[in-house]
Structures are given as structure tokens and as C-alpha cells.
Amino acid sequence: MAAAEDFAEKSSGLQARKELARKVYELLAKAIPEPKPELEYHSVYELLTAVMLSAQTTDKSVNAVTGELFKKAPTPQTMLELGEDGVRDIVRTVGLANTKAKHIIGAAGILVSEFNGKVPETMEELVRLPGVGEKTAKVVLNVGFGKGVIAVDTHILRVAHRLGLSEARTPAGVSKDLEEITPAEYVRNAHHYLLLHGRYTCKAQKPQCRNCPVSALCRYLSANPWLRAG
Ligand code: SF4
């Protein structure tokens, strides 16, 4: 294909995905009027810590331990004083407790020594903290600081593929695609719209297509019409 034709095709594909994204968000915004995080926290530092604890477990099991953890250690300094053993004792039920406690104390040390006890607001600085990858950093940047980035987890990856918002195979690729096509007015809540939709309606095994607010736009449902009966 000639370069000009290739460019034209890519542009029209991008435009179509932008229009699809706008319609999807319009419908999800009506269906989920208050898209709140399910993790409980009272500050950006607590949000960061809760997201670090949420790897490979549920928000519910994280919330079951953070009440006590944040009561004892609401800041990086108090977390350091609690120490790795103290953190591990409190978070032992969330899974990977040894690693998570080590990362939480490592991150608290860097926050105190290099950032004056504050959570930094850039991706480059956040991913320097132990246990903080791109996804965790994007949740903090978006939910904690209101930045226009979209963190992608397994639910969002699935929803993006089913609806045709992205063909990318990796969370980072889907994140890039979503950031490109999400209208500015929806960027703040896009992560939660797609996450909550994936968690409660567009489930991996049994998507609730009959009660889905975006079913009219869904190519996965068009390709699997039997799901309408589910
Ligand atoms: S119609 Fe079904 S597969 Fe499509 S987004 Fe809705 S729940 Fe998911």
C-alpha cells in the first residue's frame, strides 16, 4: 500500500475509534453516574499504598487491611516507623505479603529521603519507587492527581478488545490507544468507567450482555449473538 493510502486508512480508523469511544463513554457515564474507586484511602500516599497492595488480589481484601495500616501509618514517615515486619503483620492476608511489605517500606524510604514525604506527580519519578510499575503509576497520576492518563488492567484490556477500542495486545499498548481516542471530558473517569463496566457487566466468563448499556456498539456481541440470551 502506498504511504499516502496507508496514512489515510490509519486516519479514518483512528477517527472511527474516536467516535466509537465517545459513544461508549456517553453511555457508560449514564450507567455509572458516580464512577468511584473501590479502594479506600484518604490521601494520595494512601492511594499509592493501596494500589501497591492490590496486585493479584481484590480491592475488598485490600480494604480489609488498610483501615488498620493507615491508622498506624498514614504517611511515609510513619510507615517507616512501623517497619517492614509491622507492615507484613498487618497485610499478611492480601497475598505476596513479604514482597509487598518490602516494597511499601522501600517506597516510603525514597519518598522521605528524596521527595520530602510527598508522592511525586510524574511517571518517571513514580516508577523509581520499588513495586511501582506503569499501571500503578498511572492509577496514582489519574485518580490521585487528575492527570490525563488511563491505567489498563485485565478488565479494561478485555473491554477495550471486545468493543473494538484497541487491538493492542499489551496493557501498555491498550493504554496508549485509549489515551489517544478518549475525549478530554472523559479522561478523568475513563479508567473507572471501563474498569467497573468490565468488573460487573462485561465479565470474562459470563458477560451480562442483556443488561449492557453499550451492547448496541459491541462488535463482540455481534460476532457472538447467542450471548444475548445469557
Ligand atoms: S455487549 Fe456483552 S461483550 Fe459487549 S461490552 Fe456489553 S457485556 Fe461486554
Detailed description of the structure:
- With 230 residues, this protein is mostly helical.
- The chain folds into 2 domains: 20-36 and 148-229, Helix-hairpin-Helix base-excision DNA repair enzymes (C-terminal) (Endonuclease Iii, domain 2, Orthogonal Bundle); 44-144, Orthogonal Bundle (Endonuclease III, domain 1), CATH 1.10.340.30.
- 63% of the residues lie in helices and 0% in strands.
- It contains 11 helices and no strands.
- It has helices at 3-31, 44-53, 59-72, 76-91, 97-114, 123-126, 134-144, 154-163, 171-181, 184-200, 219-223.
- Helix 1 (3-31) crosses helix 10.
- The model has no long low-confidence stretch (mean pLDDT 94).
- The structure holds iron/sulfur cluster.
Key terms for this structure?
single chain, 230 residues, mainly alpha, Endonuclease Iii, domain 2, Endonuclease III, domain 1
In short:
This protein is an all-alpha fold and 230 residues long.
Helix content class? 55-70%
State the end-to-end distance.
42 Å
Tell me, what is the CATH class of the largest domain? Mainly Alpha
CATH topology tier name of the largest domain: Endonuclease III, domain 1
